């Protein structure tokens, strides 16, 4: 059962062949891409979606595939959008579905398609544009549908078609065939079997230029075959098989030259008069090489005699004719025949002279009959090269059976009842290359292969009852390359049993009872050219990893493939640490299911060329990275069913060439990023049947499976959740991981967008609202300082604080100070004189404004451009607005036009609400200017919202 399960697992993956090393690489590489698909695999640039119970064409297949397998699904309709973007597709297999409808122009964009298979579906009608666009299609198969109707122009675009198989449908009339083939100028092969054709008239195909070379009209209930014109001038293969139809067909070929090029003719089961058949055979008299007359109902002898007069005929197939006896004259006139097939009859007896006249015969097939012994008739065939006697009742083989067979190259005796072979039975077969003795009852070889068979290359002995191999038992086979001994009962391999097999490259010993004692006796030491050794399912068992004194394969330096899988368990086992010593060129090692519990870290030190390793179905709950350190060329690794809890060992194993990893049915719950990153060449990952945790710990793995474009993760969309308990029954890839990780790309997008918007807003504001912002800034500062001073109850120290620019200091000191302090007695606060040293400038300004009853702003162009002056007028204006008192006096030293004031938002706003004093305008009446200024500084009886009006006369 374990083996069966394992084989089933392998059949579902792009697995490996048992006959060629690393065949999976041929299947997997080059990949179109290594991504994860919901219902398919990508193998060798082919999308493999067959046998998946699909009801529609998958949408996630990459557009770069060159082949697409969709066979054995449940697809009922092909839609226009199904094959829209596949410019490189050359092969499409849709056979064995339930397709009833194909939308018009569905394949119109598949301009590279060369082969389309729609066999075994449910199509009834072929619409006019169903094959539109398939200009490069060369092979179309629509076998076994229900096609009754074909539109007039259905095949018009198939200008390159060379092969059309539309057999097993319901066309009924050749007129429909004519509609088809007249549109196909390059058609070479046409298969029309089982279409219920009852008549064939050549006139129905006239006016059509046909270059058909192979025509199959088999299994039609043909009552009339009437050929009156040469409509098939280039025909070389013609199948008229009509098994099961009892009505006699009228066969009329009017011109004997119509079939002058036919070389292969199949008239098996045809029910026609002997005269008509003879007439047909006369038409191929100059070209026929192969004639098939299987399942003939009558007149077989007459037909054989008629056919054997054809000088070109070399092959005669006479299968399933219920022959029980071959007499001396049955094929007596067939002297030119080189290949005759009597298989699948009931032949029990053959006359000794039955084949005497067949002196050119090289191939004779008598398999699947009831012969009790090797017929003596074959002794009369000195030029025979291939003789097949499999599946008869032969129980004994004697030396004289093959006397005079010195030219024989291949002999088939499989599936008989042979229990023993005499020592010299094959002695005369000096040119024999292939000997098949499978599935007999042989218990001993009795030295039969100690006799010299100098050219034997393949010996098939599987399926017998051999129990031991004796020393030198194959000594007479110096050229043997392949020896198959599997499925016997071998329990003893004596030392030297393979002596003399220096050219053997393949040895199959699986499914026997071989033990480790047989391996340790050095029985393989003579096989110095061995490439493949299969020891699966034997009784090989080692208790621990103790090194062996004589490693079993130490002389097999050329061995490439080694299999030691076992189903015969003796309990937990180890593998000797030097078990693989000497295998310096080993490429594949299969150690499945041998109950290993531990592998020594030096196990693979002897196999630096190992490319494929299978450790599945063992009890290795942990693997050391050091175990893999010598395997720098490892490309394929199977570690399924070995109870691994993680893949962390791969992180330090440095398997940089690993391309294929299958680790099914372990106990992985989380796949870490560093594990995947440590396998840069990985193109195929199979983790089916593990116990995944469906939370944020697998967020990276989920995102990687969804987005990576290198590694194909097999069946990832069906990975189930086992933890936490609430997630059981859901799928791993259905988990929403957006909340698990910070989306760096999104954050960068938002940040960049915000920064750009901020810069745009800042630029706009600076350009258009600069003054308003400055005003708001100073207003804020004023508010802060106002809150600080508003509740202070100390009396004002000064009558007025004078705000001016340092460039205007001469006017303030020379003109204003003498007039206001000297003449009028006001006490003024000047920053160069009255500011407290060491205190912050802004604090000095604030204390001066709030420590004075009034603030006089001496305004000039330089004043407006000064930052500190702007702060002073801002603080003073806020005091004005907050206290609702006349505390601000504006004095202009220069006439400043309104256009120059527009950038200075604060000053311009104050001028709209207050009058001001202008020094230039007071040039003629300076006394009046100082009088007005003094009045502005004087106390008022009532403070109110408006400022005193100062008019310049």
From TrEMBL:
Repeat recorded as keyword: yes
Signal peptide annotation: 1-34
Record domain TIR: where: 796-937
Predominant subcellular localization, coarse grouping: membrane
Membrane topology: Single-pass type I membrane protein
Alphabetized GO MF terms: signaling receptor activity
Keywords assigned by UniProt, alphabetized: Glycoprotein, Immunity, Inflammatory response, Innate immunity, Leucine-rich repeat, Membrane, Receptor, Repeat, Signal, Transmembrane, Transmembrane helix
Pfam family, one: TIR
CC annotations in GO: plasma membrane
Compartment(s) where it occurs, according to its Swiss-Prot or TrEMBL record: Membrane
Coiled coil residues, start to end: none
The organism's place on the tree of life at top rank: Eukaryota
GO biological process, alphabetically ordered: inflammatory response; innate immune response; response to bacterium; toll-like receptor signaling pathway
Gene3D superfamilies, per the entry: Ribonuclease Inhibitor, Toll/interleukin-1 receptor homology (TIR) domain
Homology family: Belongs to the Toll-like receptor family.
Protein name: Toll-like receptor 22
Species annotation: Cynoglossus semilaevis
């Amino acid at each position: 059962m374990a083996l069966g399960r394992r084989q089933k697992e392998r059949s579902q993956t792009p697995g490996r062949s048992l006959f060629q090393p690393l065949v999976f690489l041929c299947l997997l590489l080059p990949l179109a891409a290594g991504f994860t698909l919901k219902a398919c695999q990508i193998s060798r640039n082919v999308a493999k979606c067959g046998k998946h119970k699909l009801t529609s064409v998958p949408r996630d297949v990459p557009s770069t595939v060159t082949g697409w397998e969709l066979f054995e699904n449940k697809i009922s309709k092909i839609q226009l959008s199904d094959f829209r973007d596949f410019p490189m597709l050359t092969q499409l297999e849709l056979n064995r579905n339930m397709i009833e409808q194909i939308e018009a122009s569905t394949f119109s964009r598949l301009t590279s398609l060369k082969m389309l298979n729609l066999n075994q579906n449910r199509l009834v009608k072929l619409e006019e544009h169903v094959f539109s666009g398939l200009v490069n299609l060369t092979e179309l198969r629509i076998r076994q549908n229900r096609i009754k109707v074909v539109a007039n122009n259905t095949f018009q675009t198939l200008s390159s078609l060379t092969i059309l198989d539309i057999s097993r449908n319901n066309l009924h009339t050749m007129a429909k065939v004519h509609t088809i083939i007249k549109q196909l100028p390059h058609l070479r092969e046409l298969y029309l079997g089982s279409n219920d054709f009852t008549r064939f008239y050549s006139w129905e195909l006239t006016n059509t230029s046909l270059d058909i070379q192979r025509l199959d009209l088999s299994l039609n209930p043909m009552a009339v075959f009437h050929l009156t014109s040469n409509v098939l001038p280039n025909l070389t293969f013609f199948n008229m098989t009509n098994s099961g139809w009892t009505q006699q067909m009228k066969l009329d070929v009017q011109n004997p030259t119509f079939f002058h090029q036919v070389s292969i003719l199949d008239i098996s089961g045809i029910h026609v008069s002997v005269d008509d058949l003879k007439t047909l055979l006369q038409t191929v008299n100059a070209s026929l090489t192969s004639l098939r007359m299987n399942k003939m109902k009558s007149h077989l002898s007459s037909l054989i005699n008629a056919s054997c007069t054809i000088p070109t005929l070399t092959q005669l197939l006479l299968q399933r004719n219920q022959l029980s006896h071959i007499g001396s004259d049955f094929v007596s006139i067939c002297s030119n025949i080189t290949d005759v097939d009597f298989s699948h009859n009931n032949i029990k007896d053959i006359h000794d002279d039955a084949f005497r006249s067949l002196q050119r015969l090289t191939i004779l097939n008598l398999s699947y009959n009831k012969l009790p012994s090797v017929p003596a008739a074959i002794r009369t065939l000195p030029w025979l090269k291939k003789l097949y006697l499999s599946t008869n009742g032969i129980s004994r083989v004697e030396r004289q059976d093959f006397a005079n067979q010195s030219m024989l190259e291949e002999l088939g005796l499989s599936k008989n009842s042979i229990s023993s072979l005499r020592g010299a039975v094959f002695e005369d077969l000096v040119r024999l290359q292939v000997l098949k003795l499978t599935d007999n009852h042989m218990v001993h070889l009795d030295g039969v292969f100690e006799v010299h068979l100098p050219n034997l290359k393949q010996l098939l002995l599987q399926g017998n009852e051999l129990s031991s191999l004796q020393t030198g038992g194959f000594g007479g086979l110096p050229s043997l390359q392949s020896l198959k001994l599997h499925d016997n009962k071998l329990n003893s391999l004596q030392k030297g049993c393979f002596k003399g097999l220096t050219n053997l490259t393949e040895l199959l010993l699986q499914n026997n009872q071989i033990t480790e004692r047989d391996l340790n006796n050095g029985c393989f030491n003579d096989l110095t050219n061995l490439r493949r050794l299969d020891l699966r399912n034997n009784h090989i068992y080692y208790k621990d990893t103790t090194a062996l004194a004589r490693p079993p394969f130490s002389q097999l330096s050329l061995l490439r493939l080694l299999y030691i899988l076992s189903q015969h368990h003796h309990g937990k086992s180890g593998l000797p640490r030097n078990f693989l010593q000497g295998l310096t060129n080993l490429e594949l090692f299969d150690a499945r299911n041998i109950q290993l519990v531990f592998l020594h870290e030096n196990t693979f030190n002897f196999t630096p060329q190992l490319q494929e390793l299978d450790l599945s179905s063992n009890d290795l709950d942990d693997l050391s990275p050091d175990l893999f350190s010598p395997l720098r060329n490892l490309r394929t690794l199977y570690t399924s069913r070995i109870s691994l809890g993680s893949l962390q060992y791969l992180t330090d194993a440095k398997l940089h060439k690993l391309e294929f990893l299958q680790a099914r049915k372990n106990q992985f719950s989380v796949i870490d990023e560093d594990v995947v990153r440590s396998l840069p060449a990985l193109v195929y990952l199979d983790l089916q049947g593990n116990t995944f945790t469906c939370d944020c710990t697998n967020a990276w793995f989920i995102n990687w499976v969804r987005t990576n474009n290198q590694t194909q993760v097999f069946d990832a969309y069906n990975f189930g959740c086992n933890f936490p308990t609430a997630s059981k029954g859901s799928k791993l890839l259905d988990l929403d991981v957006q909340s698990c990780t910070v989306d760096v790309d999104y954050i960068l997008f938002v940040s960049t967008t915000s920064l750009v918007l901020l810069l745009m807003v800042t630029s706009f504001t600076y350009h258009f609202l600069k003054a308003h912002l400055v005003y708001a800034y100073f207003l804020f500062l004023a508010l802060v300082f106002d809150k600080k001073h508003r509740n202070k109850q100390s009396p004002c120290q000064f009558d007025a604080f004078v705000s001016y620019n340092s460039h205007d200091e001469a006017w303030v000191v020379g003109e204003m100070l003498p007039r206001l302090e000297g003449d009028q007695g006001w006490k003024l606060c000047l920053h160069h004189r009255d500011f407290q040293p060491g205190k912050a400038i802004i604090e000095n300004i604030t204390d001066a404004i709030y420590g004075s009853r009034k603030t006089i702003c001496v305004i000039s162009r330089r004043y407006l451009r000064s930052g500190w002056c702007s702060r002073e007028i801002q603080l003073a204006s806020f005091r004005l607005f907050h206290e609702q008192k006349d505390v601000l006096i504006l004095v202009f030293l220069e006439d400043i036009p309104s256009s120059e004031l527009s950038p200075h938002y604060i000053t311009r706003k104050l001028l709209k609400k207050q009058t001001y004093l202008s020094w230039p305008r007071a040039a003629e009446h300076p006394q009046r200017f100082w009088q007005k200024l003094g009045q502005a500084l004087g106390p008022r009886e009532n403070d109110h919202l408006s400022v005193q009006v100062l008019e310049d006369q």
